[in-house]
Structure formats: structure tokens, C-alpha cells
Write a structure and sequence with these properties.
The complex is a heterodimer of chains A (151) and B (202). Chain A contains 6 helices and 3 strands. Chain A has 151 residues and is mainly alpha-helical. Chain A is elongated and about 125 Å long. Chain B is mainly α. In chain B, 37% of the residues are buried. Chain B is elongated, with a radius of gyration of 20 Å. Classes of the chains: A mainly alpha (151), B mainly alpha (202).
């Protein structure tokens, strides 16, 4: 530590007792060091005794009304943010996104299957017998309805 | 039956007012503001040296206090707690201001090797014989002539009684920098306090 800063640290009680003894000894022998110490001490004392006073010029009611206005504004803003984006919506937003993408992908996959065949595959095959056949390529099955009342 | 005890705000202790304000009593909070507003403003002004900024930051400190009042446990006095809030806001403000302002000549001096180290002691007691009010005026004027870095260290050390380590933590710098700035600030103050002429202070 610089010797001048040591003198200051001595004044501010920021030294160990061993360091403080050394600085005190030095000041006993060194007149410049002692003068510096006195100057620093005088400034410290002056500031402690005569801190400048500054008072607000605004009347109490006016000053407080402005504070209340700021508090209200801050609370309104916070409430607005809470309404706009509730925490649970922020939390589930990524999950909902993934679910939406999955749903779209699923629908696209479904429409890619030849559903147009559905109409072709459904219909009375044998008008005379009154039987209706449904065949699904996708599911690999065939269903036949037979109308027993038809002559 | 209403068991709520009515508070006489003007005569109540700070602790009582704080407890009431913590429950949402705005009138109790108003009384706290009325009691401590000058001190909070004075601390803001001592650091910022600008009336408008000091009013703005002091009001912001009260808003923060209201919002965080439930966190106040009474480990320190309410006045100390408020002063901490306003000091932190001032430090934020000074950092913001610094971004749009050129570095001061004094800061450059300090970084270039510290001219203050070579300054001879002209008068070891620069305030001798001054009346309290004159001394106060001189100190005020001298504080206004320091760079904000030097003034902040001086205010935190001399008016808030913070140790080097606590100042370094708050200002985000090393203890060595705090010591160097404090040393410079004191030496500059000594020179300024001795040099002002009476008419300059009027």
C-alpha cells in the first residue's frame, strides 16, 4: 500500500494494530507525513460537523401525490402485464406449440392417404341383392351390408 | 366489534407506521414520507448534484419502498433502509449518466498516476476559524466541483459511515480504487475549502 494511503487508512481505522503502530511511528519522525495526516483529519472532521443541508421545495401534499401517482401507474402496469400474459399461458405455450405442430402433421398424413377412394369403394355393388360393400385400403378391411328386407 | 386500533400518525413511532403501511395503510406511509423526505432528497442531491434528478430519484426511492415494504424486517432503522434504497438508485443513475458523458479530467488525472500524491500540504487545517454555516456552504460548493466518482466515495464514507470494503462492493470497484478516490477527494476538498473567498459563496 502507498504510504500516503496508509496514513489515510490509519485515520479511517482500516489498519491492523501492527500496521497502525508503524504508521504512527513514521508520523512521529516525518513532518510531511504528519502534516498530511492533519489535513486529511481536518477535512474528515469538517464533513462530519457540517454536512450540507438540502430541503425539498415542493409542498408535502404535492410531493406525496406524485409518489402515489407513480405507485398507481406501476401497479396498473403490473396488472396489465398479468392480464395480457398469465403465467400459466407462458408456461404451456411451448407445449401447445408442439401439440399444434403435431396435430397439423397428423392431419397432413391423413389427407395424404387416398380418401377419395372412400366414395369409390362405398356403394351398392350388387343392386339386385341390395348389398352394400365398404372397403378400406388404409385399414385393410372390407365390410359388406346386406339388406335383408330388400326383395 | 371493531378491534382495530386507530393510529395517531403524527405521534406514532416509525416502527408503528411501518407495520401499518405494511398492511396497506397509505396514510401511515404518507407520514413516513413526510418525516424522511428531506433526508432522502438530500442524500440524492449530494450524490447527483442536480435538483430535478434528485427529486425524481427520491420519489422513485419511495415507490420502491412501498413496493418492498413487506421485506423490511426492522434489522436497521427505517431511515437507514430508505437511505440504502436511494443510494442504490443514485448509483444506477450515475452509471446511466456516465454512459452519455465524457470521462472527467480528474478521473484521467487519477488514472495517469495521481497528481494528488504530489500536492504539497499548503494548510493542514483548511477550515480553521470558519463558522458552521460558512463551512457548510464551502463544503457544498466544493462537493459540486468534484467528479461524481470522487464525490460518491466521499459521501458514502463520510456521511454514510461505510467502510472501504462496503463502498467497493456498492460501487463495483476494488478497495484500492476506493482508497485512491477517497484520498484524491479529501485532498481536493482541502484545497477548495481553503481557497474559496467569502463573496464566492453568496
Amino acid at each position: 500500500m502507498n504510504s500516503d494511503l496508509e496514513i489515510q487508512a490509519y485515520l479511517d481505522n482500516e489498519l491492523t494494530s501492527a500496521q497502525a503502530r508503524q504508521v504512527a511511528l513514521r508520523m512521529d519522525k516525518d513532518a510531511d507525513a504528519e502534516r498530511l495526516f492533519r489535513e486529511l483529519r481536518a477535512v474528515k472532521k469538517a464533513l462530519a460537523e457540517a454536512e450540507p443541508e438540502h430541503k425539498l421545495t415542493e409542498p408535502r401534499e404535492f410531493y406525496f401525490a406524485q409518489i402515489v401517482q407513480r405507485i398507481d401507474r406501476a401497479e396498473a402496469l403490473a396488472a396489465e402485464q398479468r392480464v395480457e400474459v398469465p403465467w400459466w399461458r407462458r408456461a404451456i405455450a411451448p407445449i401447445a406449440g408442439v401439440a399444434a405442430v403435431s396435430a397439423v402433421a397428423f392431419l397432413l398424413a391423413r389427407t395424404a392417404t387416398p380418401t377419395t377412394n372412400f366414395a369409390q369403394e362405398t356403394g351398392p355393388r350388387t343392386h339386385e341383392s341390395g348389398a352394400i360393400t365398404f372397403r378400406s385400403h388404409a385399414d385393410g378391411m372390407t365390410i359388406v351390408w346386406i339388406d335383408g328386407q330388400k326383395e | 366489534m371493531n378491534l382495530e386500533v386507530k393510529i395517531e400518525y403524527a405521534n406514532a413511532a416509525d416502527e408503528q407506521l411501518v407495520k401499518a403501511a405494511q398492511k396497506g395503510d397509505m396514510a401511515a406511509f404518507e407520514e413516513l414520507v413526510a418525516r424522511h423526505r428531506d433526508k432522502v432528497y438530500a442524500r440524492a442531491f449530494s450524490m447527483l448534484r442536480n435538483e430535478d434528478e434528485a427529486v425524481d430519484v427520491s420519489q422513485e426511492a419511495w415507490v420502491k419502498a412501498w413496493q418492498r415494504l413487506v421485506q423490511f424486517q426492522g434489522d436497521s432503522s427505517f431511515a437507514t433502509w430508505m437511505t440504502r434504497i436511494v443510494i442504490n438508485l443514485c448509483l444506477d443513475q450515475l452509471r446511466k449518466n456516465k454512459r452519455v458523458r465524457a470521462e472527467s479530467i480528474e478521473k484521467l488525472d487519477e488514472e495517469l498516476g495521481g497528481v494528488e500524491r504530489q500536492m504539497p500540504v499548503v494548510n493542514p487545517n483548511p477550515t480553521a476559524g470558519l463558522e458552521r454555516e460558512e463551512l457548510r456552504a464551502r463544503i457544498d460548493k466544493a462537493l459540486g466541483q468534484l467528479s461524481h466518482e470522487h464525490r460518491t466515495v466521499l459521501v458514502l464514507h463520510e456521511f454514510e459511515d461505510l467502510e472501504y470494503k462496503a463502498i467497493a462492493k456498492r460501487m463495483g470497484c476494488s478497495i484500492g480504487t476506493v482508497m485512491s478516490r477517497l484520498f484524491y477527494a479529501r485532498r481536493k476538498m482541502a484545497t477548495l475549502l481553503a481557497s474559496f473567498k467569502r463573496e464566492e459563496l453568496k
